[in-house]
Design a protein that fits this description.
The complex is a heterodimer of chains A (528) and B (82). Chain A is an alpha/beta fold and 528 residues long. Chain A has a nine-stranded mixed β-sheet. In chain A, strands 16, 17, 19, 20 and 21 form a five-stranded antiparallel β-sheet that branches. In chain A, strands 4-3-5-6 form a four-stranded parallel β-sheet, with helices on both faces. Chain A is globular and about 70 Å long. The N and C termini of chain A lie far apart (56 Å). The relative contact order of chain A is 0.10. Chain B is an all-alpha fold and 82 residues long. Chain B has a single domain, classed as Orthogonal Bundle (Non-ribosomal Peptide Synthetase Peptidyl Carrier Protein, Chain A), CATH 1.10.1200. The longest helix of chain B has 15 residues. Chain B starts with 7 loop residues before the first helix and ends with a helix. Classes of the chains: A alpha/beta (528), B mainly alpha (82). The interface between A and B is medium-sized, with 27 and 21 residues.
């Protein structure tokens, strides 16, 4: 690693990595030189599009000319508000090649939330999908210094630009800021996580090497590209190997999942655990022989879902762990499948170190619970904001706010998030403990467990349960079902069957299908 | 026998209102303009359309359904092929 002096304390670690690229742009262009005719991206759908590496480089060059002509300069912030689409991808890479900082924004956010991110990130220009016109119109006038560019098709923007013109790109270093991704946290305003080219490249390399991606790998991207998981695991990691990615608009992905895997011979994909549960609930069966592994992270994967999925679909699931603050994954269960330690979130990628620390930032012994902390090349520079905001980056570690343990072999185990932890009469109860039990019931579609106020115990346990269509289950049935499967103090005080509610149809989830425990707590507070 | 194309708009509107649990819906909207249209609702919508119009959509067609007008055109295509 050159310029080691630019690395922050929480990015230093005992691994040495060899990156052959100075920036994401450098990576893309070198791969295009090595394999010009290899397919890089496939975007199925109404307007089916495919790009070879060479074609993609050409369109990125044209778009870069457009961005430069628009007056954007190195280090300017550019917000992109799109669902998964070729428009997002082209603007993303063109912006990075011009030395801009990309601020991907979730298009499902409200106008108020979008405005907050544009202001907080000091975005100069906002490109947005034409379907979001009504949302943007609500904020356009109050952001008079920001240029808004409605984008239906990239071709409309760049048709006037020369496909062969050689561009003098700005010098971009590994330590330049590449993206600011806002965390999908539900407390207060979201926080902008600052990620450099080093962060993106090192995490992409770590994942690509972990799963032994080759040029022949074909990754299916169904997670949103405005989040880190989709962006790193199924876009930059395959790019690192010169492989191909099939980009799917998330909303169509569930029903067509196995069709898409078969049609495009996908070899690998990355999902959230709830997507696996949903696929299990559908009648669609697998037809391909191509898919060899599924990476799963972002929320707890219950044993029952993993077992049922692997038994029915015959494809191994690799659980992993990471956060936006660690670019994407920090650790993943051992590959190939035979060497997995099922139930573990795996071992650290060789780009970062992980440790379990106590409240005094001291490492705890094996199998003793503490906070999961990470340091390495993939750990973000920090959050946008002041020192108080950046308290999680301290003493040479990023403190994740998640709790877990490590065993004698170095495998890590995730127990839960500090803010979803239930403290019942002094006893720690993680929602996943009860959720794991409930998910074993064949008639339960989905569930989530929260802490509710209790005068005596401080907190008690409430389970929200959605029952499968046509199933007949009562609270009593569920209480009996849980009775001997989990310690009595972990039994739910209250079970709410959401099929019986008029104002809640399903467990609230974020755009990556992560359960929004805070929203569920809000709902409980307002309704009970 | 009643022509299945009759009242297509009204029947589609009824399905959409039920699936998305709304009282009113503009039949020109795209999926991105309907906040409740997520991957699971997409699945529910396809099943509801298949049941209502007694058709079986090819999965390749379902990945092109990104707006209500496209659903309508797909329904018409399948009804015409019947």
């Amino acid at each position: 690693m050159k310029n080691n002096y630019l690395i922050q304390e929480h990015q230093k670690n005992n691994y040495q990595i060899k990156l052959d690229y100075n920036s994401v742009c450098d990576l893309l262009f070198k791969k295009a030189e090595e394999n010009p005719n290899k397919i890089f991206l496939i975007c199925p759908g109404e307007k089916h599009e495919e790009f070879t590496y060479s074609e993609f480089k050409t369109v990125v060059n044209q778009t870069s000319q457009f961005l430069i002509k628009s007056g954007l300069k190195k280090n300017d912030k550019m917000s992109l508000i799109f669902h998964n689409s070729s428009e997002f991808l082209i603007l993303y890479f063109a912006g990075l090649c011009c030395g801009l900082t990309i601020v991907p924004v979730n298009p499902e956010m409200s106008s108020r939330e979008i405005k907050y991110i544009i202001e907080d990130s000091y975005s100069k220009t906002v490109f947005y999908s034409d379907t979001l016109e009504s949302k943007i119109n609500k904020i356009r006038d109050s952001l008079s210094n920001v240029k808004f560019k409605k984008t239906k098709s990239i071709k409309d923007l760049i048709s006037l630009f020369d496909t062969r013109k050689k561009i003098e790109y700005n010098q971009i270093s590994l330590h330049d800021i590449a993206v600011i991704i806002y965390t999908s946290g539900t407390a207060g305003n979201p926080k902008g996580v600052i990620l450099s080219h080093l962060n993106l490249l090192s995490d992409a390399m770590g994942i690509s090497e972990w799963f032994k991606f080759t040029k022949d790998s074909r990754c299916l991207c169904i997670l949103p590209l405005f989040h880190n998981n989709g962006q790193i695991t199924t876009l930059l990691a395959p790019l690192y190997a010169g492989a191909s990615t099939i980009i799917i608009k998330g909303k169509i992905s569930l029903y067509a999942f196995w069709f898409l895997v078969n049609e495009y011979q996908a070899t690998w994909t990355s999902v959230m655990a709830s997507i696996l549960s949903m696929l299990l609930s559908l009648p669609n069966e697998r037809k391909d022989n191509s898919l060899t592994a599924i990476l799963c992270g972002g929320q707890i994967l219950t044993r029952s879902v993993q077992e049922q999925f692997e038994k029915r679909f015959k494809v191994p699931i690799f659980e992993g762990y990471g956060l936006t603050e660690t670019t994407s994954f920090s650790c993943i269960n051992n590959y190939p499948a035979e060497s997995r330690m099922v139930g573990s979130i795996g071992k650290p990628l060789q780009i970062n170190e992980m440790s379990i620390l106590n409240e005094n930032s001291q490492e705890v012994e094996e199998n003793i619970e503490g906070e999961i902390c990470i340091r390495g090349y993939n750990v973000a520079n920090g959050y946008l904001g002041d020192a108080k905001t950046n308290h999680a980056f301290r003493n040479g570690w990023f403190h994740s706010g998640d709790y877990g343990t490590r065993d004698k072999d170095g495998n890590f185990y995730f127990h839960g998030r500090k803010d979803s932890l239930i403290i019942k009469g002094g006893e720690n109860v993680y929602p996943a403990e009860l959720e794991n039990v409930l998910y074993k019931h064949p008639d339960i579609d989905e569930c989530a467990v929260i802490g509710i106020p209790d005068e005596l115990l401080g907190e008690d346990i409430c389970a929200f349960v959605k029952i499968k269509d046509k199933a007949q289950l009562t609270k009593n049935d569920l209480e009996k079902f849980c009775k001997n499967k989990i310690a009595s103090y972990k039994q739910p005080k209250k079970i709410i069957i959401i099929n019986n509610l008029v104002d809640l149809n399903e467990i609230p989830k974020g755009p990556t299908k992560k359960v929004l425990y805070r929203k569920l707590k809000e709902y409980y507070r307002n309704s009970f | 026998m009643v022509d299945p194309k009759i009242d297509l708009d009204a029947r589609l509107e009824k399905i959409l209102k039920e699936v998305f649990q709304v009282e009113k819906i503009d039949l020109n909207l795209s999926m991105d303009e309907i906040p409740k249209w997520d991957s699971f609702k997409h699945y529910e919508l396809i099943i509801a359309v298949e049941n209502e119009f007694k058709i079986k959509l090819e999965i390749a067609d379902t990945i092109e359904i990104i707006s209500i007008p496209i659903i309508k055109s797909k329904i018409l295509k399948y009804l015409n092929e019947k």
